[in-house]
Amino acid sequence: MSSPELHKVERLDSTLPSLDLVAVRAGIARRKVFDGLFAIVGLLVLLIALLTLLTLITQLAVQGYPRLTQQFFSSFPSSTPEEAGILAAWVGTCLVMLVTAAAAVPVGVAAGIYLEEYARKGWLADLIEINVTNLAGVPSIVYGLLALGLFNYYFKLGESVLTAGLTLALLVLPIVIVTTREALRAIPRSLREAAYALGASKWRMIWDHILPYSAGSIMTGVIIGLSRAIGETAPLVTIGALTFIAFLPEPPLKGTFPYLSFEWLKAPFTVMPIQMFNWVSRPQPEFQTNAAAAGVVLIAMTLAMNGLAIYLRYRFRKGIKW
């Protein structure tokens, strides 16, 4: 090859890196434009959703505010809209959620710890994991039918607060289990190895190191599960929740020895969503106002429960020494 041809080839080779650099820069610029457009669209969708939710809550609050009086909280349901209240409903909701949390949280966390830390990896563990994950998406009415046959007919627990709490515990149990496993899985392997290196047993390693660091994420799963449970209606209707109840269960605490009473677990019940459904189904506009006021109370109860869980999560994280 002659000298002019060699010089031409060298000149072409020297221009190739610059051409590749220009193409790369153009591709980066296009990606930045697409990223910016996607961020703008995502922000607009988020704002629309938040504005829609805020509008609905504001409309609910404005409609129900006139009924948010002391008489509304301290009165039983009535056929007269002005005299009807939510005493039985909010007390029943608190008792049912107490049973739900007491049953679902310890069992769900313990099951998540066993499946993640103790169960041998194999086809059986994979099968259990798939089934638990799928149970988190099962419609709530299926849990109601299961509870009707298991708790009502087999264990003879009747249409009681205990049956309702256990039904909702079954509903949120897969959520707690899956969240617990993901929280434990997110802890670095080096933390476990460091605990073993210092002579800790497996249970001591889990109790003193893994659980404190994963408590915040576990509490997030508990919040999600209980927030879903407090608004459920279908499974409670299936097991026989009352739509009209004019009495309260026996209080859990008594003034005489042994100071604790479990008679309230056997009592009939109603909850806020069922009371709201009962009022919404009536034609009088005054009952619609009562339903709106009950909806505001239900939202406030959910936020209070979530706030308590967030506070406990904050306390857990604050107590960890990093």
TrEMBL record:
<feature type="domain" description="ABC transmembrane type-1">
    <location>
        <begin position="90"/>
        <end position="309"/>
    </location>
</feature>
<feature type="transmembrane region" description="Helical">
    <location>
        <begin position="291"/>
        <end position="312"/>
    </location>
</feature>
<keyword id="KW-1133">Transmembrane helix</keyword>
<keyword id="KW-1003">Cell membrane</keyword>
<feature type="transmembrane region" description="Helical">
    <location>
        <begin position="161"/>
        <end position="180"/>
    </location>
</feature>
<comment type="similarity">
    <text>Belongs to the binding-protein-dependent transport system permease family. CysTW subfamily.</text>
</comment>
<dbReference type="InterPro" id="IPR005672">
    <property type="entry name" value="Phosphate_PstA"/>
</dbReference>
<dbReference type="InterPro" id="IPR000515">
    <property type="entry name" value="MetI-like"/>
</dbReference>
<feature type="transmembrane region" description="Helical">
    <location>
        <begin position="37"/>
        <end position="65"/>
    </location>
</feature>
<protein>
    <recommendedName>
        <fullName>Phosphate transport system permease protein PstA</fullName>
    </recommendedName>
</protein>
<dbReference type="InterPro" id="IPR035906">
    <property type="entry name" value="MetI-like_sf"/>
</dbReference>
<feature type="transmembrane region" description="Helical">
    <location>
        <begin position="135"/>
        <end position="155"/>
    </location>
</feature>
<feature type="transmembrane region" description="Helical">
    <location>
        <begin position="85"/>
        <end position="115"/>
    </location>
</feature>
<keyword id="KW-0812">Transmembrane</keyword>
<keyword id="KW-0813">Transport</keyword>
<keyword id="KW-0472">Membrane</keyword>
<dbReference type="Pfam" id="PF00528">
    <property type="entry name" value="BPD_transp_1"/>
</dbReference>
